Amino acid sequence: MRRSIAAEVARRPNGDRFGLWGERGSLATMHGKERVIAPLLRRFLGLRVEIVGGLDTDRFGTFTREVPRPGSQLDAARAKIAAAFAGNPGVRVAVASEGRFGPHPIVPSAPLGVEIVLLADRDTGMEVSGQFVDLDAMWTHAVVTDIAAARAFAEGVGFPMQGVVVSGCKEQVPCPESGLFKDVLDRADLERTVGDVIARCGAACVETDMRAHRNPCRMRAIARATVTLIRNFRLRCPDWDRPGLVVTERIPGARCAHCGTPTRVIKAEASTCAGCGHRVERSVGPPATDPGRCDVCNP
Q: Does the structure show a pLDDT above 60 at 11?
């Protein structure tokens, strides 16, 4: 990832129809994601990213529940891509990102965030994505019945650098219909909005703001997903040189160094081209694994 743009341009063969050097691209965001996405794509892919003015990405779903996301995370990213092309018809490339958050499937008390960054080229039909799974996502909330508890929660998550959202609460569940305050910028805003909601509902839900520009942890995760996109873009299909030959399967079965029994240790990775489905397997790790990881030698 440290190769200079000049070196990459010199390395790129003439007539590379998938190349992005010097191209303009539209980014669908209204929450400051260009701060982390644009410099990386410019530095490593040569893509000059522009923001689509006036684009309301909240119409594709909000974390605060007043606008439900109609499809999957990838569906939402693709809808943003379409909107970016519509808003800037002169560009060949569009970029969008989408996040989702919830409890960890194995440790429900821990939060889990998944960020994807999607790049689409309408001339070639190419679509390449990058993903980052964040085990330290800043996704949490508290139901409070007094301002002191709200203040303690906010301080605990790093407010005001980390934003918070205040909403109504009904039976311990956030209820934005009873009140919703997103732009809580300082302690005075926090105390005023929490007091207002408690007066109406008897309790308030205070939660971390998951919009990228108000969530530094999420912004770092978006940057890491962008780095993954760049890596995936650089991996080319051996059949037709299309970017996006990405790892789609990790295959267990590395043999025990003592008894030769296949173990659950990964022995190979399979990569698949998103364009033609070409599959490539490559060995990973040593040819034999420690007997301590063998179910026969170490039951």
A: no
Q: How many Cβ atoms are within 10 Å of 30's Cβ, its own excluded?
A: 16
The Cα–Cα gap between 98 and 121 comes to: 18
**Residue 57 and residue 86 in one domain:** yes
Count of structural domains within the chain:
3
Question: Is residue 124 assigned to a domain?
Answer: yes
Task: Find residue 100's DSSP bridge partners.
Answer: 114
Domain that holds residue 175: 141-209
List, in sequence order, every residue forming a beta bridge with 113; answer none if it has no partner: 101, 134
Cβ-based burial of 242 (10 A; exposed 0-12, middle 13-18, buried ≥19):
buried
What confidence category does residue 209 fall into, taking pLDDT thresholds of 50, 70 and 90? very high
Based on the domain organization, do 93 and 44 belong to the same domain? yes
Q: Is 11 exposed, middle or buried (0-12, 13-18, 19+ CB in 10 A)?
A: exposed
pLDDT > 90? residue 80: yes
Looking at this protein, which amino acid is placed at residue 212?
A: A
**2 pLDDT more than 80:** no
Instruction: Give the global pTM.
Output: 0.85
Residues 6+ apart with CB under 8 A from 150: 142, 144, 166, 190, 191, 194, 204, 206
Q: What is the CATH number of the domain that holds 178?
A: 3.30.1490
